[in-house]
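User: Sequence in, structure out. Go.
Assistant: Echoing your sequence, followed by the structure tokens.
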Amino acid sequence: GLTHIRGIGYNFASAILTKLQINPDSNIGYLTDANVTAIEGVLNDPAKAGFPIWFLNRRKDPETGKDMHLFTSDIEFTIRNDIERERISGSWRGYRHMFGLKVRGQRTRTTGRKGGAVGVAKGGKIMPTKGGAGAPPAEGDADAAKDATGDAAAKTDAAPAEEKKE
């Protein structure tokens, strides 16, 4: 229904339907063209349709000074413009936005930390690296390790002994 439009919540949608005397249980596909144009008229200017000012989501716009209700992509656009205006003016809120800090007075001593932890890493034992002192050889390297230590020397000594027997 109407609540699928960004900026129109359940309360606003139900208020529009009761104001225009449209059945809330009816499907959108069965609305008449007159009903659709009436809904569009209310969405374009809800204050003119008799909605109180406190019901709108953008009161006293800094640029125009008007009370309006924003929906769809206008919400993101105006929020981005408001933040950019605060940054340029150098206000405290703009400064906090610029450096990615909390803006609305929340606690920052323990929460909202970004990045990884600095210090000693917690966890299990550290695995020894390959070929390090005192490290057991890997399974594939067992033959190479025997050759490197003394088995190769024993083989070379055994070969001349066999030749002498003949």
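User: And one key feature?
Assistant: DSSP finds five helices and no strands in the chain.
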